[in-house]
Every structure is written in C-alpha cells, then in structure tokens.
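Figure 6 in text form: structure in, sequence out.
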C-alpha cells in the first residue's frame, strides 16, 4: 500500500493504491482506495499492525481493516493525526505516535493516550503544550518525532525533528513496562537532540539510531552519568483514602551511592507546592556502593496526600540508585 500519490501529472493527497499479489512494486491506477476524500487533509504516513492499516493524516487517523480481499474503514480517530512521517513508530506492543495533543498506542484493539493513566493525567496539558512550543511559550508549535528502544521497551519523544533553541525539556522517555515518564534536558548527555534529524529506526542490534547534520549516524545511549540537575518527584500518594486524614511518621529509603550523593529529600502535602527538607545537611550520605536504608522523620500532621522530591545540591554520581521507598503512616479517625 502507498499513499499520497502523484499519478498522471496529478497529486492525490488522500488516496491509497495497493499492489497486486506478489507484485510489490506495481501500482495499477485502478487499484486505488479512498477512505475519505476532499476533506482538506493529506495522508502523512501508513503503518500496519496485524491485519489493520493505520492511515495517518494531519488531523485524523483512519483504521482500515485489510484482513479480507475488500478493505473497509473500521474506525476514524479525530485529532490523532501526525504532522510528520517521523512521528510514528512500530513497537512489539503495537503502533505508537505523537502529536500536539499527546502520545498514543494502538495495540490491535484500542487506542490509548499514554499521557493518561487510569483516567488521571500523568503529564499536564500545559506542560505538554510548553514541551512542543518552539520558544516554550505556547506560540509556535514544533514538529515532534518518536522512536522505540526494543531492549528497554521504551519510547523516546523528541520535541522537534529540526535544529532549534536549547530550551528544556528537549525529550520525554516513556517506559511501557512501568507506564512512567521521565524528561531529558539539553546538555552533554543529550548533545544530539538540538540538531536536524532523520526519522528514528532500529539497527541490526535492536539499538535506536538516527542520522543528523552532515550524515552522522548516532545510537541512543542511556548509560548513567553524573549530573548536578538530578530531580525526581513521586506521584501524589493518598494511600487509597483521598478523603481521610493521615499522620505520616517515617519515610524509609533504600539506596546506594559510591561517594557523596549530594541528594536532598523534600516532602510536600495536599498537592501544595511547598517543599520541606527532611534530610540532614549534606543529604543522603555515602553508602560505599552498598545498599543502605535511611529513616527520615516526618513532622506534618493532618495529611490527605503526600509527595517526595529528590534533588541534587551538588554533583550526583552516576551510580546513585534508589531501590524502594516505604512510608509509615496511620489513618486518622473521622468525626
């Protein structure tokens, strides 16, 4: 199947043509397929998964059933189109793509927005708009691209296929297994983000690669490096009782660091952006590279929900790791 064709000196932006059986480079004029025509929307990319063809236009995605001799339109998803061919990729979970409204995954049955989890936004709409703004003020939109790392089962979303300013964040990483997001900034660890790029693909070794600038091919490398901008904030924890007050007694953190971590720990309650440091001066101490558990006392009472923030106060070493976090609390009675 090919789409957005030029034939007989005329452009058919919303037309597909399929080849005869076992003649993959032959496209007869009579074998055309029109899912929707004259809607002012051109085909940008075609992707296939199982016996479905995903026809991406600028503003919509058509799901076409190709399991039989006669193809038919199965569903249309508005506002789920793409602006560039590099905005889609194939994974072993389905087809993933990105646009100004979100990141989506078609798994053969449903289309889900990966910016949401169980009906709750993981990334705020304002943050996503800012991420895809050329000057980070919501005025000029960028052209995002997406790639897949098979070894880690991770999606990487870059803010633009082109070279642009160094405003952060420059990329988002989504872990399909944990269903969690993290961000990447423009620094030495991601020096190949602020360049004009080809679409991302995988090589013979299942590594994510793309080409940039003067034809240099680069491979995605997520090897840990020391940083002075480390910041990790947990989700808002309500202990499955959002309307009941709690008393937090202690936070137990199991971590390791071969050298001074320079990581301070802060707490905040009830979704209020007021952070209180709960570590002693110097933050989490050196554990000699071994796993160690630290107990941190919490003073706030009458808490409905609770968050923790880990943040660098210096250069955090590359081998700093957090294994688990436990919270000792008690539900308070209602009156």
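Output sequence:
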């Amino acid at each position: 199947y090919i789409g957005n064709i030029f034939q007989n000196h005329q452009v058919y932006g919303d037309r597909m043509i399929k080849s005869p059986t076992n003649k993959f480079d032959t496209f007869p004029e009579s074998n055309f397929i029109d899912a929707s025509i004259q809607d002012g929307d051109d085909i940008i990319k075609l992707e296939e998964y199982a016996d479905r063809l995903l026809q991406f236009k600028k503003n919509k995605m058509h799901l076409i059933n190709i399991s039989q001799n006669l193809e038919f339109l199965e569903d249309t998803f508005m506002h789920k189109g793409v602006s560039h061919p590099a905005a889609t990729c194939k994974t072993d979970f389905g087809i993933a793509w990105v646009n100004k409204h979100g990141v989506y995954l078609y798994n053969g049955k449903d289309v889900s927005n990966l910016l949401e989890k169980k009906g709750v936004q993981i990334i705020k709409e304002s943050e996503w708009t800012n991420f895809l703004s050329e000057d980070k003020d919501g005025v000029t939109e960028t052209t995002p691209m997406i790639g897949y790392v098979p070894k880690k089962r991770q999606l990487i979303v870059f803010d633009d296929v082109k070279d642009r300013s160094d405003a952060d964040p420059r990329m988002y990483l989504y872990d399909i297994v944990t269903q969690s997001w993290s961000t990447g900034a423009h620094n030495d660890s991601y020096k190949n983000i602020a360049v004009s790029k080809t679409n991302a693909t995988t090589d013979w070794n299942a590594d994510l690669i793309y080409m940039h600038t003067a034809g240099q091919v680069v491979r995605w490398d997520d090897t840990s490096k020391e940083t002075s901008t480390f910041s990790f904030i947990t989700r808002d924890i309500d202990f499955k009782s959002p309307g009941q007050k709690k008393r937090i007694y202690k936070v137990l953190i199991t971590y390791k660091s071969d050298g001074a971590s320079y990581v301070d720990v802060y707490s905040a309650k009830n979704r209020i952006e007021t952070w209180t440091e709960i570590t002693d001066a110097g933050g989490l101490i050196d554990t000699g590279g071994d796993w160690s558990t630290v107990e941190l006392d919490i003073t706030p009472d009458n808490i409905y929900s609770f968050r923790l923030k880990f943040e660098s106060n210096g250069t955090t070493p590359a081998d700093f790791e957090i294994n688990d976090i436990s919270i000792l609390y008690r539900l308070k009675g209602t009156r």
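Caption detail: The chain has a mean pLDDT of 87.
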